[in-house]
Amino acid sequence: MATAKIVVVAGGGASGGQVGGGGSGGEVKYDAAYTITATTYSVTVGGGGASVDSNATVGATGDNSVFSTLTAVGGGGGGTNGTLPSAGAYGGGGAGLTTNTGAAGTVANAGGNGINTGNQGGGGGGGAGGNGANATTTQAGAGGVGIANQIQASAIGQNVGGTYYIAAGGGAATLAGTTSGAGGDGGGGNGGQYLNQVNGTVGTANTGGGGGGGIYNQGLGNRAGGSGVVIIEYTTADFNFTYSGTSTTGTDGSLTWVAMETSGNLVLTGGAVGPANLKTWNGLATANIKTINQVAIASVKSINNLT
After folding, report:
1. Residue 244, burial from CB neighbour count under 10 angstroms (0-12, 13-18, 19+)
2. Which stretch of 42-51, 113-122, 248-257, 289-298 has the lowest confidence by average pLDDT?
3. What is the pLDDT of residues 43-62, one digit of tens each?
4. What backbone torsions phi and psi does residue 78 show, to the nearest 5 degrees?
């Protein structure tokens, strides 16, 4: 038995499809001292809300990510012309044109409101670190900022000045102007521009970022949210691991980190199951015993030159 840092990031929401609001980032769950043992853990990495290129629809919500008792909830989808956005962990942004109100998140951080005058842009999707921005007459709403990945050694997330951010909201699309909403720091996609026929961009994979607002013209609809990720960091001497899904791994001093990018089974084996202190009669010898990879290692100390 030992403790580990665990970061669980859900999939980001897709954007709206017609002058769409940004999708929101997926929820982030973090535990700095989660108890783990030598066993098999089933890991679910949530997908981002899917793109739909043939219809002007509300963005799909992202899927949940799960590690043992930790569940992160998927991000909300952005609104589209005529239909309100959806509320995931953080709220999707409202569309431009009509039906402009952003959604409140079920956990925190709402999506921004769209506008039907001037720029006629949508609102940005909410991020783990802040609300999506409201549209103005000259600017579609930017996505809400994400948060710094709590296991920085994994280098998972969007690198902003040397810090890796995750779970940002997507920026919104604009109809009449050329200034779409930028995605938030943390993998949020950028919003599209109807006038220039530039669609929004998808949320970055394995960040939980929301999709950027779609324009829905000539098959340019919703933009997908970024998939989530599950990251664990533990003392290297405690365990060996195998993972059945796709992962990256590395070390940081005495620590090992594993970033699980698709669903699978994490198998932890070996490591310390003690230490157990054994003493002989009359205090003549003590033995400090632990196992490494299920092989017993004994360190014997002498007392008064007796062992």
Report:
1. middle
2. 289-298
3. 999 999 998 875 678 999 99
4. -75, 155
Looking at the fold, whether 265 and 285 belong to one and the same domain comes out as no
List the one residue out of 14, 26, 60 whose CA is nearest residue 173: 14
Distance of alpha carbon 229 from alpha carbon 209, whole angstroms: 11
162-182 residues labelled b (16+ CB within 10 A) or e (exposed)? eebbbbbbbbbbbbbbeebbb
Joined together, the tokens standing for residue 259 give 């970033």
The answer on 217 and 154 residing in a single domain is: yes
Q: Starting at the edge strand that comes first in sequence, how are the strands of the sheet with 285-292 ordered? A: 276-279, 285-292, 295-302
Contact 93, 192 (CB under 8 A): no
Domain interval for residue 287: 274-307
Q: How far apart are alpha carbons 293 and 299 in whole angstroms?
A: 16
The Cα–Cα gap between 147 and 169 comes to 11
On whether the CB atoms of residues 222 and 14 are closer than 8 A, the answer is: yes
Can you tell me the mean pLDDT for 126-133? 97
What is the tally of structural domains in the chain?
2
